TrEMBL record:
It is found in: Membrane. It comes from the Bacteria. It comes from Methylopila capsulata. This is Proteolipid membrane potential modulator. PROSITE patterns: UPF0057. One of its GO terms (cellular component) is membrane. Keywords: Membrane, Transmembrane, Transmembrane helix. Belongs to the UPF0057 (PMP3) family. Pfam families: Pmp3 (PF01679). InterPro entries: PMP3. The chain crosses the membrane at residues 7-25, 31-50.
Length: 52
């Protein structure tokens, strides 16, 4: 299942984080990072998915 979440995180980083942790600090941080730049959002999303 993590492979699917990682693929979703590459396409839509906030959705990948939402599927892993729900609405919380990491979700809002990922939205901010994605708005600042797409690549930081992807890196953060993959980090959250792999970490848990």
């Amino acid at each position: 299942m993590d492979v699917v979440r990682i693929l979703i995180a590459i396409l839509l980083p906030p959705l990948g984080v939402f599927l892993q942790v729900g609405i919380g600090l990491h979700f809002w941080l990922n939205i901010l990072l994605t708005l600042c730049g797409y690549i930081p959002g992807i890196i953060h999303a993959i980090w959250v998915i792999i970490r848990k």
